[in-house]
Fold each of these.
Amino acid sequence: MELSKTPLSFKPFQFFILGHFLSFTGSWMHTVAQNWLVYELTGSSFYLGLLSFFSSTPIILLGLLGGVLIDKFNRKKLLTLITFLSVFPPLILGLLVQTYSVSFWQIALLAFLLNSLTAIDLPLRQVFIGEIVPSGLLTQALSIQAFSFNLARMIGPALAGFIISYYSIYLCFYLNALSFVPLLLFLLFFIHLQDLDFKNKPSETFNFKKDLKEIFLFLKNHPSILATLLSISNFTFFGISTLILLPVIVHKLYGGQAKEFGILSSTIGIGAILGSLYIFLKKEISQKLEHLLKASLLLGLSIGGITFSPFWFLTLFLSTLIGFSFTNFFPIANSYLQEHTPSHLKGRIMSLFSISFLGVSPLGNFIIGILGDILPLKIVLIAYTFLLIIFQFFIFRLLRLRKYA
């Protein structure tokens, strides 16, 4: 394999990233429409929070089980099965809404089922990328994936808003079901892992207790992997969770309304796309752990800067840096974990990656939401910024000390 090529030089990756983009665009449409549907049905923020709980719980409960499945079974067949099953929850929800027979608990149950599949799907997609591109191109491939994810994050909600306004909300759920079909067809007919020499060889035995013990022993013997996972949790808990306060920041610090909130959110998305392009064009990052520390520092300083920014345009620039830090952190952390993990353990490590991000996020959002109500906004933001930076330095300092002990 010529490492002078880019990941897009490989046909399997071309098909995968296109299917990945379409399915995530549908997923973002689904999320926006689902939240709007629940609010229309209940008129209650409590039920929106309850729906978020049902949506995030499977990531925590099933994450490690999903990782074991990824390591024990053929990854292409497993991804094909998960993609096929993912069609049905949004399809059923669309039918329920169209026939005026939907209730909150039906929405919550279908959200739980869909996100149970997502608990396996997310880490599986991360590992699968390592199956269809050479290891030397993995960081670039993950930056392209981050770019497609953030592009879908911008397009999906906009499409959902247009469809809800001018057509019918159930169409968003049908389109989400349909969005999985291209990836499914690509997996069935166009992505042939047998043609590649870096495919995984699934294990033959399944012993959940033994498999968990194996991964914890691996983490004990590889402190850099454990430090990276802790760093991701810290980045999520004290960094990303501050974004839930964006509406409060816009209103209290700048006297803005929904328009300004939308603009600020968009600049974060633009920054994330620019960050993905930066990683893609840079091609090779040698000191990845140092890069994670720099991205964390950039996030912390940007949040702190917004807290005291006297100018709206400076705030928009800083919010762009926030998005830039996201896609300079997660793809690098992801590639570092995969590059330093044996193939037969990658599913479990990527599941821990998902838990460190998506599992920690709801808890971080919940706690900062409470603190935002009882403490001055600037105090909360500065405290979170300080803790983010201090803990990141502490994690990597301990790793450095252990390395040279």
Amino acid sequence: MDNNAVDYENKNDFSVGSVKKSIVKLAIPLTVAQLINVLYNVVDRIYIGHLAADSTNALSGVGLALPIITIITGFANMFGMGGASLCSIARGAHEKERAEGILGTSFVMILIVGAVLTALLEVFAEEVLYLVGAGSETIGYALDYLVIYLIGTVFQMMALGMNSFINSQGFAKTGMFTVLIGAVLNIALDPVFIFVMDMGVKGAAIATVISQVVSATWALGFLFSKKAIIRLRPKNIRINLGYLKKITSLGLSAFVMNASTGVVQIVNNVTLAEYGGDLYIGVMTIVNSVREIVYTPLQGIAGGAQPVIGYNFGANRGERVREAIRFLTLISLCFTMVIWGIILIIPEAVMRAFTPDPALITAGVPALNIYFFGLFLAALQFSGQYTFVAVGKSKEAIFFSTLRKVVIVIPLACTLPLMPSLGVKGVFLAEPISSFIASTLCYLTMYLRVYRKLSPMKIKKVN
């Protein structure tokens, strides 16, 4: 190991020093990065929602592409978060060669899967969009956006997946810049392509693709450089089946989280199209945008804690793992309580940030209040879920990812609207009901299966 890497290794040794400071040091830039990352798509929707002509259908059309993008993100997270979590455990055990092999395998898989997804979705884009709820008024906008957006699929997945490895090594500021560079470029290019060049939704997609290329280039440039502790070396750019099995097993929970969210969005769009029409697809597009903004800091906080938990777990520092879990839970609860209060107090202002359409605002305000009721419970879901991933308990992570979205939300979203007193409200009500059930069970299981089995000085068997 060269002297530069040794210095970084010592600097990012999470088994010494303050656990809280280590988490905060990672979480702040990671949260900023995650928030900026949300702007990739959310800013597109804000600009499109303010188009002079037919903004509601344009916004709904872009919203129809959202579940497809969410599922693509799931593949990136499967290899990125799954590999990065294994990398943290390997680093804690001082197994550098193994960690770099994991990185190389994840890189190749992201490249292959990204290329396959691009080819398939480009060919079947129209069929897929009709399947997720597109109608005659929205299909044109949806196709214009998605067909161009898909060109950047590999770059989007590479930037997101490889950035997980940057953050897991403790380089949170570098990870923040991976996202910052692309997002700032996207925000700057959006009005140029959308309004100045009068390209509408096509312009939004072009701006996003350009930004994704730049972000991916930055991330790969760092991982190939000597600044990284765990580097992307040519000799490791191959598939190691042993590593792949473990990466996929652990990363499957991250994939299920995103893929199930995408499936829920599809079910919601189809149900809303039947009971409320394109107007309510537009409302759900805004609700999903707010959800992304709200959940992103939670992902940043949990993402900051995950390398600390994984490293100390690998280093047999049980009490430090417990302390990290407690701190993660506390700050997540505080954050969600504050955000819930804001949504309850000024829901109309939140809606107006996305659209000036009075019909969308009138329908959207009660939808916001219903959907985000009991938001603080999301803190328990994220704390439990990320802890399971950090310590390598893939089965539990996958189970609770599936339980909340697939087992609870989807059936409720399909059945609650059948009740005469609910209608479209039932679609939005499914979310808080699932949070009360699944989030509580997830955290309680984590407490019993992980937290209580960690001794003060060393790791007891928790499998």
Amino acid sequence: MKTQEFDEKFDNGEDVTPYLDLSTVRRPGHEQRRVNVDFPIWMIQALDREATRLGVTRQSIIKVWIAERLERHT
């Protein structure tokens, strides 16, 4: 597909995602990096209880809570 045709489809509000290779998409500034953190057992147990109650993983709840805290400070 030529660029002009792609632009016309986009400008007309058509879905252009089938023409994109999304397998290589990256969000600048949102790359992930592994970090190891040691928590006391009582804290892990409390995290697991809350994660189970919400139906999410322990990692998800930790990420959300840290993100919420950081947003409050910026």
Amino acid sequence: MSFFKKLFGRSKQNKSTADGVDKIIGEETYLDYTIQAIEMKQSGEYILAGIISKNIGDEVKTHKFIRADRLHGQEQAVSTTIKKGQQIIDQQGDSLFR
């Protein structure tokens, strides 16, 4: 399996639950956005992964992000994901949903 497929693919190792729905392990509101840390593990380590969402009009817009960072525990994964989500929002704002 190629490096990129392992990193970005949704293999059985990366799926959070048996039905493929992401398991939320932490959540925080930042400005008008919601940042959710999702559980994604590989080889016993957490992968930095999250979802940023915002209500725009009558629609909920979402953006999923996954980074190559490996974290040793759930608490560290949640706090790092929230910080990364805030950084993405600060840099891109609503343009992240285009």
